[in-house]
Design goal:
The chain contains 13 helices and no strands. It is mostly helical. The longest helix has 68 residues.
Length: 406
């Protein structure tokens, strides 16, 4: 009986211990109570007459102890639930704090990335400013080309120039030739002076300029006023030295007159091809300043940029004659590779800034490609014209059978 009783008591105690109690918890009380109870049972069991009393007392004591264990278990469960709830709340607060910090970190990272990506390339401002300043280049060049072309047509046909004045050839070919010889006076050479054509000029830079490509049409990227005038005379001397002059009244009313006019049209058309190429070439080298706001802005940009480019003077005054289309094109082409400051800045810039510079360079290459394409078209037209002339000459010298000759 003692053994079974003690086993029951210890089993109850073990149930209490299995929930994690130690000596400092409710389990300590149960252990102490069990020891005291076993001591009382031992004393009572010694007397057989007290057996019924022992059993009754023992039963009531075990019931009380079991009740105490149940209450202790309930209290432990509540405590564990409270601890778990607090732990969950603490974990949630930590997670919230971490989430907020992560959001802030990502925002700051994106701001930093945006600042990096927003950085301009080393040449962005320079390219934009130069393009805005040179925005009217093509229009200006086209206008100058058209004006010179009109003068050359009037020179050939005896018509009126852009100022509505009759060309020298309006009085005939001989009058036009006399005017061309007189126009040689500012460029008089030694042999012309000896021949009595003109008085030799002292400025060797101008001697023969209207018949010397190096001193006129190929004299540089931007012509001086003297070189520009000499170039106009050079084109007339090269392309059409002997103009046709005007037509007589009612010249085209006869078959012979109409045939002659057809030949005249062919001559004028073919000559205009050469005139267009040469006049546009010259127009691209005439200063675009003209006292206009556009020209002033272009000149300021060119002088500022040239100081940074190898081959130009760092002291400025690189464009004393103004800035032409050819000057702008050359300077824009050199302002990257031939600019040491740009090279150093590119080396220290981030990938995003350098990629913008690459985009600028590729855009300019695309523009150069378009200009090259237009040039190839003109060259093709010139070659086709030359082929037509050669074919006509071949036919004139050896006409096919059945051809009626004049």
């Amino acid at each position: 009986m003692r053994t079974s009783t003690k086993s029951a008591l210890m089993a109850t105690v073990l149930v209490a211990g299995s929930v994690g109690w130690g000596k400092d918890s409710h389990a300590a009380m149960v252990y102490d109570y069990a020891d005291a109870l076993m001591h009382e049972i031992k004393i009572l069991a010694d007397s057989a007459q007290n057996k019924a009393q022992v059993i009754s007392h023992f039963t009531s004591e075990v019931d009380a102890m079991q009740l105490a264990v149940v209450e202790a278990l309930k209290m432990s469960t509540g405590q564990l639930s409270g601890n778990a709830k607090e732990q969950i709340q603490a974990t949630g607060q930590i997670a919230d704090t971490q989430d907020k910090r992560e959001v802030v970190r990502r925002i700051e990272d994106r701001k930093q990335q945006a600042m990096i990506e927003a950085a301009s390339g080393a040449s962005t401002c320079n390219v934009v400013t130069g393009n805005l300043a040179a925005g009217g280049n093509e229009v200006t060049v086209a206008a100058m080309t058209a004006a010179v072309a009109q003068q050359l047509e009037a020179w050939d046909t005896g018509g009126k120039d852009r100022n509505k004045n009759p060309a020298p050839s309006a009085n005939g070919t001989d009058a036009a030739i006399a005017a061309r010889v007189a126009a040689f006076a500012p460029y008089c050479t030694f042999d012309a002076h000896v021949a009595g054509i003109c008085s030799e000029v002292e400025d060797t830079a101008l001697q023969g300029a209207s018949i010397n490509a190096t001193k006129s049409i190929f004299s540089g990227n931007t012509y001086s006023d003297d070189a520009s005038a000499a170039t106009d005379h050079f084109i007339a001397n090269t392309v059409n030295p002997t103009p046709q002059g005007p037509l007589p009244k009612d010249f085209g009313t006869t078959p012979q007159g109409q045939r002659a006019f057809a030949d005249r049209m062919g001559h004028r058309a073919r000559t205009s091809v050469a005139e267009n190429y040469m006049t546009e070439f010259a127009s691209r080298r005439k200063p675009l300043n003209g006292g206009s706001l556009l020209g002033d802005d272009l000149h300021k940009w060119a002088e500022g940029t040239a100081k940074q480019v190898v081959g130009y003077s760092k002291n400025g005054d690189n464009f004393p004659n103004g800035v032409s289309w050819a000057d702008w094109m050359e300077l824009r082409s050199k302002a990257w590779y031939m600019n040491p400051d740009w090279a150093v800045q590119v080396d220290s810039n981030n990938m995003h800034a350098n990629s913008k510079d690459i985009a600028m360079i590729l855009s300019f290459i695309a523009y150069q490609g378009w200009e090259t394409y237009k040039l190839l078209e003109k060259i093709g037209t010139i070659e086709a014209t030359q082929l037509a002339i050669l074919n006509e000459r071949s036919r004139a010298s050896d006409p096919p059978r059945g051809t009626v000759t004049r």
